[in-house]
Amino acid sequence: MNRLLSLIVLFSVLVVSLISEAAEDLNVLPPLDGEAAESGLVYHALQKRAHEAFANRKAAYEEIKTAEDCLAYQKRMQEFFRSQIGGFPERTPLNPRVIGKLKGDGFHVENVIYESWPGHHVTANLYLPDSKPPYPGVLVPCGHSHNGKAADGYQRACILLAKNGMAALCYDPIGQGERYQVLSEQPNEFFRGGSRYRPPHPQVQFYCTAEHTLMSVSSIPLGSNSARYRIWDGMRSIDYLVSRPEIDAKRIGCTGNSGGGTLTSYIMALDERVQAAAPVCYSTMFRYLVDFNGPQDGEQVIFGQLAYGMDITDYTLMRAPKPTLICAGTHDRTFKIDGTWELFREAKRFYTRMGYAERVDIIEADAPHGFTIQLREGSARWMNRWLMHKENPIFEGDLPVFTDEELQCSQSGQILLDAGERSLFEINDGLNQHLAKDRAELWNSGDLKTLRDRVREVSGVKKLGELLRPEFKEVGSIQRPDYQITKLIIKPGHGVPLPALLFQPKERSGELVLYLHGGGKDVDAGAGAAIEQRVKQGDVVLAVDVRCIGETSRKNNRKIGWSHGLLGPNYHEWALANLLGNSMVKLRAEDILVAARFLSETQSKNKPEPVVLTAIGETAIPALHAAALEPAMFSKVNLSQMIPSWGAVVKTPETQNQLINTVHGALKVYDLPELIKLAGETKVKITQPAGVTDDLAVKAP
Predict the structure, then answer these.
(1) First to last CA, the chain
(2) Are the CB atoms for 477 and 505 separated by under 8 Å?
(3) Cβ atoms < 10 Å from Cβ of 371
(4) 365 forms bridges with which residues in the sheet?
(5) Residues of the chain predicted below pLDDT 70
(6) Where does the record locate the signal sequence feature (predicted)?
């Protein structure tokens, strides 16, 4: 009976405890409404900064008055663009091979392979007219088609050009067609995470948009972007075109749709050989992306471009006065037509200032996003006008297309499976190994002050003295046995209120602890959990949600289904911060510094005391930056579930939620182990190290 009574009492205590915990509401911020409810707190704040950047750019554009002003503007933009994508390597031999030939009606096709980097091959189809050469050559970068160059629309665009006397070279971008870079060992019937689309090869896992962004994850720490590799593929493809005796090297054009429109825009801006260009279903002002669908996949997010004042229209302005046709769809849901007309007006004024107003034009198909027949015909007519100097109308008619197998260039259907092929991730790993030698030499100097300055310069994290002291507001409290939890809203001045829980024992006898959990401030805040254990030792603990964590994290971003969950829930926040020249690591590190100083100044008994910094999961890398740059602020640094280095990120094809932990160009100066030296090796403790493939992202409810 006594045992039964004891069990009943224990059960009652547990029930009361559970009811008590269930009654506790550890949320701090009020429910969101209006625009913030749709976009989230962090995105909404960054959006305001983006609009300030748009206004600054517009003002700078209006200062361009003369042809000389235009030339100076072009030079400045081109130099910035090349720098931000990491520049280009030296040209190496193409080592081209013709794999097979196909016969069409009035044209023929050659399946070709050539190297854009040593050991890294491009698979392409060259459409040649049956008429007598030489021909103009038109590069056709693919949009986001799963089967790349074999997609019907891209075949028809190339056939139309060839039947009208122009050669066309259509190639597989990395991450599409025969050039997927992230393959699985097990066969896949459908792309991962869905049952709607079948991949072009059984070992392909992810949509091309996801692959492109994974390549940016690998490239960003090197100071690059997947755009670098995609542009370089295009430039080397032009190298191949002009190497062919049938092609007139002085008559080169470029046209592509969607993601191919992006690449057309990039290539036409940076490669002077492109005489005529027609980007399709891409050209709109960045404001319309930021305000509606958000920034797109990895190669379309160039670090710092909005802060610098480089908008999408600038790709057209950079090439003026060379002929450019803007092709668009009235009902394009991604690249809004209103923004397209705004872009065209800017371009028209710019071309007019240079004295060649007739060389930029626009066509608008009453159609949705895509390389529709009207746009295929329009781009072909544009090439016909400027490369052939003819004005005859061109109509497509019925154009039979080839099968994927007929256009295949690789032995296996995926070039990465062919012997000796190097992936982009292997190329990046080689680049990092080269940088590692330079880093070792730099860090062997032993001048920690100079090294700290270099880290600050690359990371962009402000000095503590430059960060505003926040306003704060108490919005509630919870009483537990032996201690109290005070709900705080900390307002650092950047537009995002940071929710916090301040745990105070009845009598403080221990340390001041700043507690940051990647899953949110409430993860370890329950009765008996890690925070309570510290409070019962006499510590004062401040648990904070820094930007894109906990209550400030995007809860349900339906616009990134293409990411397969590989990029975490806050992709658009990362992307917009990146466009504004900030990493999320920088923004979070500054939040951490502000919170640490707030804790020290408000809770120290006499003068401000150093703080114990505990960071878990997604908060660990920004916490390490904060400790490395302001070591006097922290007495101990406890990091858990942190990756050991960015070097592992660079070489790993399938990383999980690592984009938000990247810093543009960091590996040119430092990797994570060097930050430990700056923070103080004796006070940094790392437990439960994470791998770059561990899924540490917070799942949306």
Answers:
(1) 44
(2) no
(3) 29
(4) 329
(5) 1-23, 695-701
(6) 1-22
Taking phi first (over 0 means left), then psi (-120 to 50 degrees means alpha), and beta for anything else, what does residue 248 get?
A: beta
**What does the longest C-alpha to C-alpha distance in the chain come to?**
105
Say which DSSP state 477 is in. Answer: E
Six-digit token string for 272: 């002077």
Query: Residue 436: what pLDDT?
Result: 97
| Integer CA distances (angstroms), 498 to 135, 460, 586, 627, in order | 62, 21, 16, 20
Q: Give the position of tokens 């849901």.
A: 333
Hey, what are 444's tokens? 């062997």
Give residue 23's pLDDT.
59
Return the structure tokens found at 78.
């081109």
Provide the phi-psi class of 70: left if phi over 0, else alpha when psi is between -120 and 50, else beta.
alpha
Q: What is the pLDDT of residue 678?
A: 97
Q: Can you spell out the DSSP letters for 319-347?
A: TTTS-EEEEEETT-SSS-HHHHHHHHHHH
Model pLDDT, residue 430: 97
Q: Where are the alpha helices (DSSP H) in 393-447?
A: 424-443
Q: What are phi and psi of 127, to 5 degrees?
A: -95, 120
The pTM (predicted TM-score) of the whole model is 0.94
Beta strand 684-687 pairing with 97-103: unpaired
Structural domains in the chain plus CATH codes: 97-175+209-394 (3.40.50.1820), 440-687 (3.40.50.1820)
Instruction: Enumerate the β-bridge partners of residue 329.
Output: 365
Q: Pick from 652, 691, 662: which is nearest to 426 by CA?
A: 652
